Fold:
Amino acid sequence: MAAHRPTPQLPEHLEALYRAFPFDRSLAEDPISAVRPLARDPRSAEAAAVFAALLAIGNTTAIRGAVGHLGEIADGDFGGFVSRMAPAERRRRLRSFRHRWIRGDQVDYLARVLGAYYAAHSSLEETFLDGYVAHGFAGGIDALAQTLRGTTLRRRLGPAPRGYTALFPSPLEMPRSPCKRLTLFVRWMVRDRYPDLGLWHRVPAGELRVPLDLHVHWIAYHIGLTARKSRSWAAVEEVTEALRRIDPLDPIRYDFVLCHTGISGDCPKERDLAVCGPCTLRPDCLMWRGRSGAT
Structure:
């Protein structure tokens, strides 16, 4: 493993970055912006969050476009979209839907899975807790993945569309995916601090794991939160544990800030004094440690 480690001042530097961060600017670029207006209806918000997390692939413009398009297809009512919209009408509306490799028939099958699940359960928190109690946080993500795959509903719903199961990886299965989209969904549901929704109340925020996207992983590696050069569930655990040592009760509070520091270009991922100069993490960054300020 690489020898790069966080500086003793990293907690102070992260806190300074957090306090100065323009949350409102970045919220508009984040898929949670389409979910927050639905928070008064927990069922609709939770269903919307599942779809928004599923579509969180690629650049932010494309993600927001896909989530917005799906919201129009659902008439802004994701609870009704999965439970009350006529199946033939939903299939018709989704026929031409596509975002990256995610197709309309896959989105329709997910809607069918959620409709069947909600007919018997009030929230996906129930299935997460079943797995969490048995096997910890990774077990909760695995239980969510199995539920969203429709594993126990195949006899009722029929076979899933091509490529559907792969949309919901599990950290308990090889190749031990970082499961970014499902950990992101759980973050939205559990944390009750801005910008998250706090709709689940039985999962401690201190147990969350970081949604390790490319931006968060790049920054985490370069400030010494992990020595792993590739994203994996082991890297998720390593970064989360490092953050937990900084804030045991809310270790994921810095996730949104780190992610959007990368997305916005505030972290250019190369030595650029014009951009990096004001960054509070520059003293911790592997690209700057031991070097002069000159580019």
User: Anything to note?
Assistant: The first strand starts at residue 98 and ends at 99. The domain at 1-29+205-289 is CATH 1.10.1670 (Endonuclease Iii, domain 2). The chain has two domains: 1-29+205-289, 32-203. The mean pLDDT is 95.
